[in-house]
Amino acid sequence: MNMREKIEAAAARYPDQRSAIMPALLIAQKEHGHLPGPVLEEVADILGVERIWVYELATFYTLFHTEPVGMFHLELCDNVSCMLRGSEHLLRHLEVVLGIRKGDTTPDGLFTLSTVECLGACEMAPVMQVGDDYHGDLDIARVDALLEGLRATAGLVTGTDRATPAAPGV
User: Fold this and answer.
1) DSSP letters spanning 73-119
2) Is 149 within 8 Å of 138 (Cβ atoms)?
3) Residue 133: its H or E element
4) Kind of pairing between the strands at 128-130 and 133-135
5) What is the pLDDT of residues 64-113, one digit of tens each?
6) Pseudo-torsion of CA 117, 127, 111, 94, nearest 10°?
7) Of 29, 69, 79, 88, which cross-links 112 as Cys (Cβ 3.0–4.6 Å)?
8) Verdict on whether the full-model pTM lies above 0.85
9) H/E element holding 46?
10) Mean of the pLDDT values across residues 12-26?
């Protein structure tokens, strides 16, 4: 099933096509890795909705990416609970270890580092989301172990000892 067919199938569950924008964006992002302008326009055209409605949702929610992201998108919560438990210190550590600043992607395309307002997991602060997985009660050692595990996973995914993804966001 191609992207258009998947979006049309998802949209059929909603009485108003505008309500199907978020599921359609998730389908499109899974297909393309991120949501550049032409993809957003295609989603709007498939749904028959105003393009601005699609752009508004795609640029408001942090789960949507209008620019390419690394194989692993590290989203560190920087809200009050996480900040009080050291998320700022973890962010500085991640920037040093990865050699990038918040908002950037490593040159090998493995990691994109972002902060998010809240992940809704205050009970395990500080917390970071990587893909669909939450990692909580973080400290420097846990972050380093997580990065090591992700690098190993990338090696397994790409079939090499050193990950070399074809392109960020793929």
Assistant:
1) EEEEE-SHHHHHTTHHHHHHHHHHHHT--TT-B-TTSSEEEEEES--
2) no
3) strand 133-135
4) antiparallel
5) 999 999 999 999 999 999 999 999 999 999 999 999 999 999 999 999 99
6) 100
7) 69
8) no
9) helix 37-47
10) 96
In the predicted model, is pLDDT for residue 152 greater than 50?
A: yes
Report how far residue 51's alpha carbon sits from residue 45's, in angstroms, rounded to the nearest whole number: 8
- Which amino acid is present at 61? Y
Residue 48 to residue 16: CA distance in whole angstroms: 10
Q: Is the pLDDT of residue 168 over 50?
A: no
pLDDT score for 155:
87
* Residue type at 54 in one-letter notation: V
Cis status, amide bond into 68, omega within 30 of 0: no
Pairing verdict, β 111-116 and 72-77: parallel
Specify whether the CB–CB gap between 54 and 25 falls below 8 A.
yes
Which tokens sit at 115?
């902060």
Q: Quick one: 156 exposed, middle or buried, by C-beta within 10 A (0-12, 13-18, 19+)?
A: exposed
CA dihedral angle for residue 82, residue 86, residue 91, residue 92, rounded to 10 degrees: 160
